[in-house]
Design brief:
The protein is of the alpha+beta class and 75 residues long. It contains 1 helix and 5 strands. The chain has a domain at 4-50.
């Protein structure tokens, strides 16, 4: 089990602490170009497109890379 706070601390170290946010659903990684990547921790989440995401990983095509974090993260 990986605690969300431990994962945030690790990501803060990698990103110099200025672009990782914790909310009710998980972690949000914000790039310098204002693009967000969500790491969901169960439940439902609204993305930038205002659609509800169910916490499952998106489908990937044959040419797409695998997601870097694909395991279950619990808080």
């Amino acid at each position: 089990m990986i605690l969300v706070t431990e994962l945030k601390r690790w990501l803060d170290t990698l990103t110099k602490g200025d672009c990782v946010y914790v909310d009710d659903d998980g972690l949000t990684l914000k790039s310098e170009l204002d693009q967000n990547a969500y790491l969901e921790v169960g439940g439902l989440e609204y993305g930038d497109d205002n659609e509800i995401h169910d916490g499952s990983l998106p489908e990937y095509g044959d040419d797409d890379p695998e997601p870097p974090i694909s395991g279950l993260i619990e808080d």
